[in-house]
Amino acid sequence: MDFTSREILIWLNSLGIGNSNIKNVVEGFSDLPEFWASDSKQIRAMKGIRDEVKEKILYNRNIDNIKSLFMNIEKQNIDIVTIFDEEYPTGLRYLNDSPQVLYIKGNNFLNNSIAIAIVGSRKATSYGKWACEKFTKELVELGVTIISGLASGIDTIAHKTTLENDGKTIAVLGNGIDNIYPKRNLSLYKEIEREGTIVTEFPLGTPPLAYNFPQRNRIISGLSKGVIIIEAQEKSGSLITAHHALDQGKDVFALPGNINSIFSGGTNKLIKDGAKPLLTMDDIIEEIYELKQMVMVNKSNKIDYSNYSETETKIIRILESGPVHTDIIAYKIGMDIQVATSLLTVLELKGAIRELSSRVFTIS
Questions:
Q1: How many CB atoms neighbour CB 308 within 10 A?
Q2: How many C-beta atoms surround the C-beta of residue 272 within 10 A?
């Protein structure tokens, strides 16, 4: 029986042999069907793969195993995206350690244009819970997809708040998609399966082992435009997500906290090391270009231009592209600066625009 490269890739992943070993297999043969048909001598001669991994491959390389695997996948209604597929998430494709296979349940929101990750302490304080709900809700209202890890505490709050506000959420697991961890999140898992996306790179049956979670965190950051750390102790998995994000060139936002709280030790240190303090939504919007553009489009779509004069409309149109200084506005509409300043004051009183800083205006 012949198998495609994609099917063989999924089978290799199901063995739990890791991305680096799978990449070495792919690089060692012209294609995976050639690998499948090769004799044991050729496989044992492969470079960069430990002998025990080679023996595991040889032991499991039979038609019954691969047929049983795909029957199980179909039975559990699991979708799979591989590195060979066009719909593979762009944000993960160019990572140093790109997951070769992704197991998905629910809707596939992995290529949504704007997604923000929200992670934090498993033991959320009332302050952390409030902040998580606040920023999650505000992001969802803008149309942002929320990514988190289905863990207790901040992760759970981020997912639940998103669903309560009819938003899109992605849960990235550190175990097999057929394992629900923590068990107390069974109902949340089911709700995300119906309304959002559940995804993991770990094959079926993989338990929630401690060393899986730092690895899964690179997927959380890789799928996002930026990462928000709500609360974190100085030694926290959330900080690993933050460091993955920084390595990937993503923005990191940290919620400042009480210097006497152990749950703010990690976030305060991130800020000290250069993460952006998260005080208001503007802190996020001004750093993420795609989000800034989305906000501008949303605002302009809500403006009823019939309420404004032709000149006022011209000014609002100029501000749709982002904050602009008074002098530039005056120049663009060919008007005396004093007259332009008066018009800006009128528009501010009408609630159409607001002054960000000295003589720099934006849409309200």
A1: 17
A2: 9
- Cβ neighbours for 107, distance < 8 A, ≥ 6 positions apart: 168, 195, 196, 197
**Whole-structure pTM value:** 0.83
Q: With cut-offs at 50, 70 and 90, classify the pLDDT of residue 153.
A: very high
Q: Which tokens sit at 212?
A: 């899986």
β-strands 276-277, 101-106 pairing: unpaired
pLDDT in tens, 97-134: 999 999 999 999 998 779 999 999 999 899 999 999 99
Question: Dmax over Cα atoms in the chain, in whole Å?
Answer: 84
Helix, strand, or coil (residue 15):
coil
- What's the CA angle centered on 342, arms 340 and 343, to 5 degrees? 65
Per DSSP bridges, beta strands 145-148 and 169-172 are parallel
What confidence tens digit (pLDDT) does each residue in 279-298 have? 999 899 989 988 887 777 66
Geometric angle at alpha carbon 156, from 154 and 160, rounded to 5° = 120
